[in-house]
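look at this stuff:

>
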Amino acid sequence: MRGEPLESSTVLDRKDEILGPLDPTRYTTLMRLVTDPQMRLVVAFGGGSVPGLCGNTALARILEELGIKPHVEQVWGTSAGAAVGGPWASGSNAQRIFDCIAGLDRRGSVDISWFKLAFSLMLKPFGTRLPDGLIKGRHFSAAIEAAFSKHTFEECEIPFRCIACTDDGNATRKIFRRGPLLPAIFSSMSIPGIVFPRPRLAGEKTGFYDGGLVEKTPLISPIAEHHRDHPKRTLLLLGSHYTNEVKQTAARGFLLRFLQTINALEDLAWHYQIREAREKSGVELLILNPRIDDPSLFDFSRVERNYLHAREVLADTLQNAKLALSFGLR
């Protein structure tokens, strides 16, 4: 479901209105779905860089306000979705996660290794390799860790899964289910060539790339696990998906051209995956796209604006009338 952005005034002007309490009577259709004992509610947070962080946090907050979080039986995340889904599944509330993300709106939070890049370029004629990435991600990693209430998959209040893919040339999907949360989440958000990969842990035979390369919004993986482990119940998969709604133009500069190419490939895979997911039996899909019109990917100065926009659109999209049309409910 693609929510329609409301543009009569800026979201910052309407901040108090947007952050006001939700009216439960407008969400009875959604509540009927998530409380149905035959339904197994799984939340899948999709990737989408900083706009995705904001949208996922807004969705998590709405689910909390409506009393839906206790009905969530599993949380999945990819990239920015893992960065929000992991802390949320660990027991942290959306406000704590938002505060950690908003705290990155400071100079140097996107720690690009300019010196290492320049040094490698100068010595490239002599056989020196270019670095494996541009952004170290130390500040972002610290922000994620600060958002945790628990630090391992096994300790999470809600079972959590996150998706990455191997960097061995095969791009094999990797689903993290156990062990420490932070390395798994950092793996899920390691955009190849942009974010430095983390050091390998003991027993790991490969490094990992951003999970968006194989499953930008977790769909196929949670459906497969559900059919394997819960064949008698219907899966209600509530997921977030992010696409750049700004009109595409020719990118300028290596970084933007590279990221635009990756986004195009991810979107191509998404069209196949959503079609395949809709053909699966015993699955109800509720995919939400708040249509955050932010062309930047790493601009933390826009966190509040993007969060408010996503909250306004998602709160509207999940109301009774629009949800009933999607599910054919009365």
